[in-house]
């Protein structure tokens, strides 16, 4: 054959493949989601998420020593509250000394250089299990945003570096930005959950927080999986309201949405590699149906290829350990 182009020449060895690789993963890309709960000496594995645990604050601090040693620069902390501390207005979220705010303070005190991203939404504290105030079966948008602003300021006061509004209420990014600025937290960033879809891939996360809706679903505020242009509209709004970073959630089933946001906006785009995506690979690997390590790295790389600057993933520790080996 008389071929001018032989693409296989650029694949002939590991050294060549590494040299011409268009995308790569780094531990600097990762945010590690972690769960904190009440108690002492508690390290409780989440059955639907093998290798992921709920920690009491003392055990969380121990675990973070390994996280930091692996080179992970940022965690995203989520609280697990007992039912008796939940109510319709998520009142516990701003109580002085409450579990979540105390955890942020203690983590920041022991690991001052570790970035802490927080979760701003009502569902971990809501007796209804929804991300907003429920009245006659409806989710109240503007009244919910007021609570989210108070929550964001309380988290910033505790030491949060990045506020993550995960609720999908309209207008909350601008209101939270104003509330943070008015309280003197102009340096606290906002990572908007810009395109958060009403997805079937959140099941294990809801197990982790015991935060499933007590009735109905979240389709009146989370996005329809059929839509991409709507994600761009949401991104336009969040960008104009002052978001510093924007997230697509889930990631693997929405790579086209990550690409769309990356193409249209010049701020960092985050992919949330959610609990269901994690659980699928773990379950398949445990059954011997695929190589879990290789599938993990391929999945994460696909998010970078789609345009993600940051990946929020439960695989962060495992992937960081592999990357550290070189």
- The helix-and-strand class reads alpha/beta
Q: Strand portion, in percent? A: 15-25%
Helix content: 25-40%
Report the span from N to C terminus.
38 Å
Task: Give the biggest sheet.
Answer: 8 strands, parallel, barrel
Q: What strand order characterises the main sheet?
A: 1-4-5-8-9-10-11-12
DSSP, total strands = 12
Please tell me the overall pLDDT. Answer: 94
Query: What Rg is obtained from the alpha carbons, in whole angstroms?
Result: 20 Å
Low-confidence region ranges: none
Summarize the structure.
The protein is α/β, with parallel strands linked by helices. It has eleven helices and twelve strands.
Question: What this model shows, in words?
Answer:
- With 326 residues, the protein is α/β, with parallel strands linked by helices.
- Helix content is 39%, strand content 18%.
- It has eleven helices and twelve strands.
- It has helices at residues 14-20, 57-69, 99-110, 141-158, 172-182, 203-209, 229-240, 255-264, 275-286, 292-306, 316-325; strands at 30-37, 43-45, 53-55, 74-80, 115-120, 133-135, 138-140, 162-165, 189-196, 245-249, 269-273, 310-313.
- The radius of gyration is 20 Å and the shape is globular.
Topology, element by element:
Layout: H1 14-20, E1 30-37, E2 43-45, E3 53-55, H2 57-69, E4 74-80, H3 99-110, E5 115-120, E6 133-135, E7 138-140, H4 141-158, E8 162-165, H5 172-182, E9 189-196, H6 203-209, H7 229-240, E10 245-249, H8 255-264, E11 269-273, H9 275-286, H10 292-306, E12 310-313, H11 316-325
Parallel strand pairs: 1-3, 1-4, 1-12, 4-5, 5-8, 8-9, 9-10, 10-11, 11-12
Antiparallel strand pairs: 2-3, 6-7
Helix pairs in contact: 2-3, 4-5, 9-10
